[in-house]
Amino acid sequence: MRCLWGCSEDHIVEPHCLSAGHPYTANILHLTAACRIIGASMTDREILKIENLTKKFGPLTAVDHISFSVGSGEIIGLLGPNGAGKTTTINMVLGILEPTEGIIEILGHNVRQSGPELRKNMNFAAVYAHVPANLTVRQNLWVFGYLYETKNLRKRIAFLLEEFDLQDFADTKAGLLSSGELSRLNLAKAVINEPCLLLLDEPTASLDPSIAQIVREKIKNYVKRTGAGIVWTSHNMNEIEAVCDRVLFLSHGRVLLSGNPAALPSEHGKKDLEELFIAVAREPLVLKG
Amino acid sequence: MSISRIWAIFIRQFFLFKGNPTRLISIFIWLIVDIVQWGFITRYLATLGQATFSFVTFILGAIILFSFMTRIQQGIMMAFLEDIWSQNFINIFASPLRVKEYLSGLVLTSTTTSIVGFIVMVVIAGVAFGYSVFKLGMLLLPFMAILFFFGVAMGIFVSAIIFRLGPSAEWLGWPIPLVLSIFSGVYYPIGTLPPSLRIFSALVPPSYIFEGMRVILTKGVPAAGFASDLLIAALLTTAYLLLAALFFNRIYLRNLKSGSIARFNAEAL
After folding, report:
1. Which helix (H) or strand (E) is A8 found in, with range?
2. CB of B6 closer than 8 Å to CB of B92
3. Residues 6+ positions from B43 with CB-CB distance below 8 Å
4. Domain boundaries, position B79
5. Residue A13 lies inside a defined structural domain of this protein
6. Is residue B221 part of a domain?
7. DSSP designation for A173
8. Which residues in chain B touch residue A128, judged by CB atoms under 8 angstroms apart?
9. What digits encode the pLDDT tens for the residues A234-284?
10. Is A55 contained in some domain?
């Protein structure tokens, strides 16, 4: 039996893995509670699996046969210049954009066949997806808690307000919050249902470095605690290096490169991830060759 | 269908009213203006001396019922527009919410506000003009049921149009009740219309209601064939409701393909 939940890479489960507090046990317990898909195996390592995903808008191919997977406890960075297809990919996983071709599976279930039910196990935060500005922080959490059928909602909201340092703003309208406070609210909303799959589209954009670091830590802690899989897009390469286990470079809708963010730049003769990003953005075909 | 998710759509609107009580004024002000203005108009008409019946009875009754239907339609449209204005579509449609749950939530919201508005109108008509809508007796129930479901169908239809054409198509939603009122016989009998326009009246469920109401208030009993008229109105309303829901769903599926849901905001469309 292999250890599936990230206590380390591909080693055999030892008795200590099953002890209380060990990530293996903790994640099994979490997924037992959180993954409400009938028939979903809690030992499925793949939280998200994408195969040959394609989206065409008329003559434009925004996403072109991309394939990748996200494992439990894994943070995958989707990188690429503007228009590379990152947000289009995320929108297809979220179910708000229909793919032209390809398969999206969450916990082994095809999104097309069991879309709305599967969405109980995922959530997202994005700079362009606003929570209603005319509702207070607490009211927003109530609304989204009901939308995701969160159990013990009152307790969950109290926990999230504390976890994301939002108690002082609980009764403030979202439209009056600062960028940092709003980002924390978006994240609180994104984890209200304790999702197994979290999609974060530039979650720290427009945040100052200090708040961005706090937000990153919150997300990393969430992954450590729950074993969720995360897809993370960002234009901040330092951030990607700090949080992602694996990155995929997208260019013109295709996956150009993928690998460990620490090793990838040197593999392609670049100093760091930022230099690699610039190369991909400006000369993707040269790099590919 | 998940009650929790329908409730989410409802409380989202409830929180808006709670957070900004001036929004409540918008529910009542037009209704109050309508009932007061028509109350005085009918009172004036009654003083002209030519009337052989009570204008108050006819017109105020029709105004109350027509406003009820209109408020249902506009309530659904407004709740839908609220999600557009707050750019909340991604959050809503990326959640486990199904289209039928979303529509149910909008209808629940609109029903609540419309019933409150109806009660206010009934009270004002009774206190200020001595009119009781309950003169219609038990028939008030099927009348209101048909007007309610037709209002729901119109609300969903208009929301679907806005969903398809974008927020700039909002203006289409406002005159629809007025256009329908021409063919519905709210203010005058259908016989007043030229024969070519009466064909449209036959396709509009409220026309059967207001015609029937007129007969009942004049003669005290329903006209012969009234039951079949009521049945036709009910069948037409059911058909419109189903078509409107299918239409909304079709637009939703179209928007899923085109990516409009992700881009849906006032600036983009």
Report:
1. none
2. no
3. B55, B56, B129
4. 3-263
5. no
6. yes
7. B
8. 90
9. 888 888 888 999 999 888 888 888 888 888 888 888 888 888 888 877 766
10. yes
On whether residue A2 sits in a domain, the answer given is no
Q: Residue B238: its pLDDT value, please?
A: 96
ipTM of the complex: 0.84
CATH code where residue A66 lies: 3.40.50.300
Measured CA to CA, the distance from residue A148 to residue A117 in angstroms comes to: 10
Residue B268 lies in a domain: no
Would residue B251 count as lying in a domain? yes
Structural domain range at position A114: 35-288
Nearest to A126 by CA among A64, A204, A45: A204
Give the pLDDT confidence score for residue A3 in this predicted structure: 37
Q: Give the β-pairing of A60-71 and A229-233.
A: unpaired
Tally of domains in chain B: 1
pLDDT digits (tens, 9 = 90+) for B93-134: 999 999 999 999 999 999 998 888 889 888 988 888 888 888
The token duo for A153 is 């909602």
**Tens-place pLDDT, residues A199-208:** 998 888 777 8
Q: Show residues of chain A in contact with B87, CB under 8 Å.
A: 129-130
Rg (CA), chain A: 19
Burial classification of residue A4, based on how many CB atoms lie within 10 Å of its CB (0-12 exposed, 13-18 middle, 19 or more buried): buried
Whole-number Å distance between alpha carbons of A24 and A73: 10
Q: Is B165 inside any structural domain?
A: yes
CA dist A230 and A72 (Å) reads: 8
Q: Is residue A26 part of a domain?
A: no
Across the interface, of B11, B253, B257, the residue whose CB is closest to A143 is B11
Contact call for B11 and A142, based on CB within 8 A? yes
pLDDT greater than 60 at residue A134: yes
For chain A, what is the domain count?
1
Across the interface, do B8 and A94 touch by the CB < 8 Å criterion?
A: no
pLDDT digits (tens, 9 = 90+) for B235-266: 999 999 999 999 999 999 999 898 888 776 54
